[in-house]
């Protein structure tokens, strides 16, 4: 197998807005990230992925870009960015940017010009369609509520936006759009950035004629994802991107692809033939959707372990030797892993956070750690709607409670507490002081009240902390080709308490056992009694008896 630097790398995701504020405005910034580079280095990771730091009206926290070549003034300026890149490189860290090119902000020059008139040379940069006011061109529903179409009074046409109306979709059919995007990519790669995480990149090819989506539930608007994911020209666009840009650089690329199948991933990110290096798949993070399909992700039911194992194992097996997995529990769009898949009650939090870390980091692929995950940070446990800032959460509340009356206030508040993206976005917890060491000012989003206990300071001083455990996992991976490249064999897929698997590489075998319950369970795996233990989240070892949330990895042969 051809081996590349990003295959034995571990990535750390920084959400700049919530990482470290340096100027007291309550919003994290680039100078703050620079201050914290030594921390990231000490953790042992190899790559930093930065969520968008480009100029943006911030309707969707930077995923609405108004200028791809300048820095969000609240975050700093290009000089500070260059310093960040230089200092990261000096520490041996790669820096990967977010590339958001399915859509721009409505404040981007391209869109402003596109909007000016029907015969603007930029009109065709976006999707404009005729339609009567109140009767949009098709039945597609936006990710953030309502129709994907916004009526423009001046030109009497609608434009398409899969996300907020301030995020119009770019028309990739137009070769000028593609050339403009290649230029943006070259601009950053020429600066020396080490690659891109590509936002909803499998949505860029829309189906011919933009037909209605199936809507068997007669929802107010139909689910758009099956219509726009993996569209007809996607592969063609990836090939062009690769031949014109990516192939000219030693850059890492990971495409965020909702609904992607393992077969598609092999096609887009195949080891020998793929145009991208990795994809972010969604199977294991979309298992607890509401029984009422109209409510989509909004739910508070626990995730079923058998389904979780099936999802993760499927990807391990399908990509082995063919493509490369990305491994993640968390990112800025998901609830906190320890709260969603583990157990964030005080007596189990540390143990279950370590268990989740071990289970994921012993798999084949490139692990991604989202800021604060390495501390076992939990969901925000907000109780009032006013505490939320996220556009998706607020729009969902509005749509389902106020407009459609699908759920009542209390139910929706439970759903938000379980699934809101703001759970991931509360400020990084550096220390036990009032503002958690994040800012001197008023944080843009409330800190989690548990920062007095769960914080970097405390965890650096505790050899048994979640943070220290992540460090050890990263080190183990760096020193063990089996963990990086070994194949994957799932054991007892129907066991709904224990997640067990084997990895094999060059004649050696590793066994990974984990107990996903708060009870002691016993299994009959052949656990060696005389050594071989690589890492465990308990001090001592009781062989085939697994205590609450116990997880361990053994070299068995
Ligand atoms: O998210 C893509 C995406 O599919 C989201 O709709 C995701 O499913 C949702 O946030 C989960 O609840 C990307 C970015 O990661 C996200 O932050 C942006 O809001 C979105 O694209 C639009 O750019």
From TrEMBL:
- Gene Ontology molecular function, alphabetical: alpha-amylase activity
> Which SMART domains does this chain map to?
Aamy
Return the InterPro entries for the record.
GH (IPR017853), GH13_cat_dom (IPR006047), Glyco_hydro_b (IPR013780), Malt_amylase-like_C (IPR032091), O16G_dom_2 (IPR045857)
Keyword tags: Glycosidase, Hydrolase
Limits of the Glycosyl hydrolase family 13 catalytic domain: 13-425
A Pfam family recorded for this sequence? Malt_amylase_C
Q: Which domain of life is it from?
A: Bacteria
Gene Ontology biological process terms from the UniProt entry: oligosaccharide catabolic process
Q: Report the sequence similarity comment from the record.
A: Belongs to the glycosyl hydrolase 13 family.
Record-given protein name: Alpha-glucosidase
Highest lineage ranks of the organism?
Bacteria, Bacillati, Actinomycetota, Actinomycetes, Bifidobacteriales
